[in-house]
Amino acid sequence: MFEKLKYLTSGESHGKALLCVMDGIPSNLSLAEKDIDMELSRRQKGHGRGGRMKIESDHAQILSGVRWGKTLGSPIGIMIENRDWKNWETIMSCHGRDKGKGVQVTRPRPGHADLAGAMKFSHRDIRNVLERSSARETAARTALGAIAKKLLSEFDIKVMSYVTEVGGIEAQGIRYKAQGSEIKIISELFGRAEASPVRCPDKKSEERIISIIDKAIKEGDSLGGVFEVVITGVPVGLGSYSQWGSRLNARLSYALMGIQAIKGVEVGFGFESARMPGSEVMDEIFYGKRSAFSVQRLAGGFYRKTNKSGGIEGGISTGMPIVVRAAMKPIPTLRKPLSSVDIETKRRFDAAYERSDVCAVPAASVVGEAVAALVIADSFLCKFGGDSMEEIKRNYKGYLRQINNF
Ligand SMILES: Cc1cc2nc3c(=O)[nH]c(=O)nc-3n(C[C@H](O)[C@H](O)[C@H](O)COP(=O)(O)O)c2cc1C
Fold this sequence. Notes:
18% strand, single chain, four-stranded antiparallel beta sheet, Chorismate synthase, AroC fold, 34% helix, 17 strands, globular, binds flavin mononucleotide, alpha+beta, five-stranded antiparallel beta sheet
């Protein structure tokens, strides 16, 4: 799926550390551990997170690919230690001599990879499944996304997100607001989300969302929701219609659906556009030196007054902000017991509860930013690619000149 950026993540939830390696980042990009830590810390926040987030304060160690604060153009290796490791050293040990020191997990939790994963990989201890299928892995993707964001920021491309809905409570006046809005308004929404414990830009809705999360905590239940990722500053021309897999909307959806617990993705007006007549769905085209939107530089003077397409037409960015939305299911680990069957005894039991989040939609929205940033960075490098930042900047400048003379 990725053409220029290649990456892999590794690591178990209670293992020693998470690891990731990414190849394809050009040389001479400024990169510090604190750039990555900032994103890791954003992922750990949010009202409704479980106890673990209090134990872990993630820190990224750059192991390779960076020298004296600049990327080398070689693969970048990152390690994020699991701070809880000391309590898991024997249970998660890689040594055969420690076999059997942990309690065997035989009770699959509904809504998790537990049962299907154990059957697929022939594991009789479900810990072998849940350790890797856990969303702890998203810390690694967030770290890689931080590098992608850093690259994009050199070209004034900003990846932002906010929560539009939790447990059926929709934030008032937020959904679709980014569509057809100026970058300034989108940045304001983002600023308010950053200050909110549930990443909700609307204060009244924020209070309602906090109170339903508190209710779910009390009742031993969990909640899902919807978040929106908005990317501003993307020039016309990323992605392509020429092959299905190059379509930018397809690539973004794939990346977002790759996040644990994401069950649906929309681009622009998405499902809503299926309910509207064609005359109300398309974004009419205008041209002018001074438009109401600060995107002209990105599309050579062509602009839209609306952005129902979510900034993508025919799989290609239009120069308008890119808007994607993802739906997250409720957290499957519940204090309220769910029925399941023990894989050894084949007897019914109430699924066990392990320390868990009650609502992780705010955190998922930060992960959403990261995976979207990786897709946009890859598409950007496909179009303007070079080995060094200097080369890419030159290519980009030339392209902007070209579209401005179009
Ligand atoms: C940021 C984030 C945090 C999550 N935290 C938890 C959690 O604490 N407990 C839990 O049971 N599931 C949590 N999940 C969801 C599960 O990882 C996910 O539902 C499970 O792995 C099954 O995958 P699926 O829902 O994609 O089928 C979280 C997901 C994300 C994105």
